[in-house]
Amino acid sequence: xxxxxxxxxxxxxxMSLLMxxxxxxxxxxxxxxxxxxxxxxxxxxxxxxxPPGSTIHHLDNGITKVYGPDGRHVLTTRDxxxxxxxxPMGGLVGASHVHSVPSGSxxxxxxxxxxxxxxxxxxxxxxxxxDNAETPPPSSSGWIEYSRDSDVDDLRYFRASWSVTAEPxxxxxxxxxxxxxxxVSPDGTDILQPVLEWNVVRGTYEWTxxxxxxxxxxxxxxxRIDASVDDDxxxxxxxxxxxxKTKIRNLDTGESSILWTDPNEFHTGDNLKIFCALxxxxxxxxxxxxxxxxxxxMIFTDDEGDPINITWYGYTPGTAWGLTDLKVVRYxxxxxxxxxxx
Length: 342
Known about the structure:
The structure is a single chain. Helix content is 8%, strand content 46%. By secondary structure, it is mainly beta. It has 2 domains: 39-128, no CATH class; 142-339, Jelly Rolls (Sandwich), CATH 2.60.120. It has a 13-stranded mixed sheet, with no helix packed on it. Strands 8, 12, 14, 15, 16, 17, 18, 22 and 24 form a 9-stranded mixed sheet that branches. A hairpin with a 2-residue loop joins β16 and β17. The radius of gyration is 24 Å and the shape is globular. The chain starts with 5 loop residues before the first helix and ends with a strand. The relative contact order is 0.16.
């Protein structure tokens, strides 16, 4: 009599094991979320909002987990579910590696990660347990033309003025353009840049401005401000004691976007690289490129406030994409024009 129950028990046991093996896998797949906007501890239409004080964990298996300030799980995503977002200097990176933070925030590198402070409180932590950044796909994207001095010593202050140029005449939906001056660390890993952006929120086809800081393959921008054609702008990077401040200001609207580095965070001293650049993403032809930009009244000073001599060299990598009439014109150390077909 007892033997009659063995097959039934065995079947139930096998079914239970199968359910145990399959069930969690399905549940795990269902919890992954698609992220197509920057993760941000502040609200907004163009961000994926997470609670202030959250911690973002980038795991070495391509998975990213976010936990709130109370330690509760907020979301899980993986690199294959993240939209690639073009960022100045950084290329195309997964959305979980791009972060919108309030203007005036301070970005601090800590052991195995980064912390963001605003008004004295930590509003965001990023923990890197591996490199899961998405590799950019081949495309006509990157720096279109730029001036560069790759060996600047004792730089404390770099300021440039320019005006909002004409938008691309017949652009595509995906096209994004950036215009900025910048300071880059000697090893090329960190960058400070006050940026004029076009169509950075895709489909808006508008000019905006924001201060950006790229550090350890994470990219932070301050609150965006509006801009219109012919608005006058200035952008600078300035060292105050041990901290660097990046600021872009629209003189016509009176608005600014600002970011700070933590004390002694950004490289200072010798062999800094400086740029004035036009960058574009998903650029097919001249119609995706904005008009000419004249960087003028540029200032370069050292720790004593004395002028620094720099030497600009011009580069036009966008010609390899088939773009025409690209030219970097150096009128002086203080004035450089990036010319396009528009």
